[in-house]
Amino acid sequence: MRVKQHTIKKQVTVSGVGLHTGVISNLTFLPAPPNHGFKFQRIDLEGMPIIDADVDNVVDVSRGTTLEQSGARIFTVEHVLAALVGLEIDNVLMQIDGPEPPIMDGSSIQFVEILESAGVEEQNALRRFFEVPESITYRDPSREVELAALPLDDYRVTVMVDYNSPVLGSQHASITNISQFKSEIASCRTFCFLHELETLYNQNLIKGGDLNNAIVVVDRVVEDSELEHLAKMFNKQKVEVRKEGILNNVELRYKNEPARHKLLDVIGDLALVGRPLKAQILAARPGHAANVAFAKKLKRAWEKIGPTHIPYYDPKLPPVMDINQISNILPHRYPFQLLDKIIYLDDTVVAGVKNVTINEPFFMGHFPNNPVMPGVLQVEAMAQTGGILVLSTVEDPENYWTYFLGIESCKFRKMVLPGDTLVFKCELLAPIRRGIAKMKGEAFVGNTLVCEAVMTASIVRKES
């Protein structure tokens, strides 16, 4: 799995009819900055409201997953989200001029292809995985539905479906690595049973339904008069039934295509957790209602980890900058080189790490019998982190100095001791003008804020 966040290199657009609304829409994927996540924007509505792809925004799961935020809705989002997850893309803004993404052929493959045509770009931020710490389960005994997430340093999904149908029977599908999504899952189309069609039609759904964008399973004898009625419903001259029990001679792409599509839906719905997952997902007879309920349990579990504004640090992942890259930018050297790695960097925010050990030279004279990291050095380390941010705005940072101009509102909230890992976050409070940068700095040990300050710095070219 990719360890850094990714977006697309350029905007791309797909067009088509929505499955349930029957409304033709244009869906445009646009690049987005780190930690943006997946967001939809209804550009056809006043104010162009944004709808976060968040499980807490789900308002309907009757025949697909529907989101609502700020009074705006977006229907049937699961196939689009599955494509993004399957390509390990983290940050995209999706602008749409209608209420529902195009159904395309009923699968995710055409979304995958258009996203690949845009190109994928690595970003200076680590992916914020939710590594499932222990078994998390969801059960609905009335429907014999069960989903489970088991600890795993990867993302694997296994699905079992059983419809008591002579045509489908019991089916299984699985992927052992998310990289298999495109080749094994993305092209698998949505499906329904013949007896559901009339109900969906009468409920004012499947207005955009067509025998080309869904598999219709026929598991009973059908009279000619009913086939004539279906032909009229779908505006076809003729509707037939194959021996396999599939309407209108549609060829299955896989014998277990329905199970594979259910796996696709699981991946799309679990994207609403808000973080890429590291887990083994097991799903028996899943549907959108169960997927969303399970996604909520997963989100509640990772919310217990801590506040989302604290930079995410996983020592197992490679940094954005290691000590050698930092040394090429910052002039500081022993004993004042206080920053070990950079784990996040964008246009306005930087996060860095310092490992505090008993071998720090300052512990020899600063409370030697009660080692506590000096507060002034915490601020210095935080300033060096901010220095990486301001120097990243020039093309040749090695030719600049950074100088402190001021410190405001500095507070030390808890002692920092040997063995602690300090995680710093610095965020620009205003755009850099005339080489002057003002930023808010925070230092954390675990989920605890230990130091904070507002710092002003100047970047000066060396020859001047």
Automatic annotation (TrEMBL):
Cofactor(s) of this protein: Zn(2+)
Residues the record lists as binding Zn(2+): H79, H261, D265
Annotated family: In the C-terminal section; belongs to the thioester dehydratase family.
Xref: SUPFAM superfamilies: Ribosomal protein S5 domain 2-like (SSF54211), Thioesterase/thiol ester dehydrase-isomerase (SSF54637)
Protein name as annotated: Multifunctional fusion protein
Keyword Hydrolase attributed: yes
Gene3D superfamilies linked: Hotdog Thioesterase, lpxc deacetylase, domain 1, lpxc deacetylase, domain 2
Active site: H288 (proton donor), H366
Pathway given in the UniProt record: Glycolipid biosynthesis; lipid IV(A) biosynthesis; lipid IV(A) from (3R)-3-hydroxytetradecanoyl-[acyl-carrier-protein] and UDP-N-acetyl-alpha-D-glucosamine: step 2/6
Keywords (A to Z) from UniProt: Cytoplasm, Hydrolase, Lipid A biosynthesis, Lipid biosynthesis, Lipid metabolism, Lyase, Metal-binding, Zinc
Biological process terms in GO annotation: fatty acid biosynthetic process; lipid A biosynthetic process
Electron transport found in the keyword field: no
Any matching Pfam family: FabA
Molecular function as annotated in GO: (3R)-hydroxyacyl-[acyl-carrier-protein] dehydratase activity; metal ion binding; UDP-3-O-acyl-N-acetylglucosamine deacetylase activity
EC number annotated for this UniProt entry: 4.2.1.59, 3.5.1.108
Known catalytic reactions: a UDP-3-O-[(3R)-3-hydroxyacyl]-N-acetyl-alpha-D-glucosamine + H2O = a UDP-3-O-[(3R)-3-hydroxyacyl]-alpha-D-glucosamine + acetate; a (3R)-hydroxyacyl-[ACP] = a (2E)-enoyl-[ACP] + H2O
Function in brief: Catalyzes the hydrolysis of UDP-3-O-myristoyl-N-acetylglucosamine to form UDP-3-O-myristoylglucosamine and acetate, the committed step in lipid A biosynthesis.
Subcellular location: Cytoplasm
